[in-house]
User: Fold these one by one.
Assistant:
Number 1:
Amino acid sequence: MISPVPITVYADNSVYGGIFDPGIDRPSQEFFLQVRQGRFDLVTSNVVEDELALAPERVRRQYEDFLPVSRLVVPSGQAIALQEAYLQAAIVTERWATDALHVALASVHRCKIIVSWNFRPIVHFDKIPLYNA
């Protein structure tokens, strides 16, 4: 049964491109279908937008197509402080600072789920409990 209240989710750039990648195209398409159906309240950020600036046109278009049904957030002092806390706690290294910012933005904006195909610094099973700590 689908909840009548949409679940707030943050999608990083990998999900927008995922609809064009064999192997993750179907789950990505299903996710965006459920966004359209109102299952998810989609949160994105200007960080995602910046990362997609050099992406292929069809990926940028996918992102732009969902902007009208998304809540666009920007890094606040609170999100940047949380990102810094993740770095200081060595959850990720400076190399993955942008990914830590994605997690911080999702946390600050009370997203229940982070949707990502980035399995190293974001949705890796060893990292999730550390972010939650």
Number 2:
Amino acid sequence: MSHIERTLIVFKPHAVMRGIVGEILTRFEKVGLKIVGSKMLQPSIEHFHHHYEEIGKMITRRGEDKFNTALGMMQEGPVLAFVLEGIEAAALVKKMVGPTEPKSAAPGTIRGDYSLLSFAYADTAGSDVYNVIHCSGDSAEAALEVSHWFSESELFDYETAHEQFRKPKKDKK
């Protein structure tokens, strides 16, 4: 069994509009994750419904109102979607991103460093928590999300400079 896997991250419109995508993306590259797919898009309601309900079961777990609030926030502007590859990538990214509620996210996590709202405040204000980024919950969810957001032709298999230099050199004779 290979420990190398792919996972999805989506920079939400608020992250794109704040201009913090590059700064956050660098954090994933610094831990050794490789970008194998990327694109900017403004998905349809149907795309988000499949993502949030068919895969993530958001309506089932949290209700139609929460889904509609999240949908409204996700349609405020374009998103940037990336597929990252690496050793146990889904778990690593989830750890780096932190919990969904920004208030609960520890300093040093992406949501802890770049988000500030709580569920209670968002509920009172009738808004979403603006937690800047989506990441897959686990390896199984990552596989479903990657195939929903990207076609095989949009994903690339290549060696990074680090991977090329780690290969053992062959003796010249």
Number 3:
Amino acid sequence: MSTAPANIAILQNHSLTMLVQRELERMVLAGELVAGEKLNELALAERLGVSRGPVREALRALAETGLVRIEKNRGVFVREISVTEADEIYELRATLDQMAGRKLAQAIVPEQLAELQAVVKRMQDAAIRDDREGYHLANLRFHDALVEFAGNAKLTQMYRRLVNELSLFRRHTLAEPLRLRKSTLEHQKILALIAAGDTEGAGARLHEHAMASRARMHTFAATGTAPVEERRASNE
């Protein structure tokens, strides 16, 4: 008896699970599923027009990426990130950013540099339009590409989990203001150091960049407002 139909069914289910996972991830990061919310498999399946199986598998995958937590006998919840945990994540992310910057400055190729330059251009255009969502997406791609191009799969996997966790905190809890123009200049300087092969400079600038975000997070958490220089920059 041929196993082809069974194999096709497995592939179809796997593909559907991936689609469901991506949509649930989008919903969490967009705030449609909020931090702390309990997720109901049946309700999500009905909302997405699928059976409960792909939803269950997708939620397990999202737990691995740090976006949801599974509690035995209680269910699945969108993760909540505290200021203390965000502080620890920023500290670790700064170290990974530094490592990626140093590695990439040693080995970047023209195609990678061109892609990063194009992303920075998107950031610049978004800043001019005051398009915060567009800027946020381009900023995520810039840092993700830096880590991806560094060529360490474990580094990339760990980094992406940390970014997911920070996205829960930054977008849904604090909604951190973006200093669009100043931030674009910072990314241009980072890219220039990488392009010049300055391993120490690139690593140090990326570490400083992440730690500055950590400091802004603490200011916003304490006062509910961005630092004075950022509010000024946003009005320039």
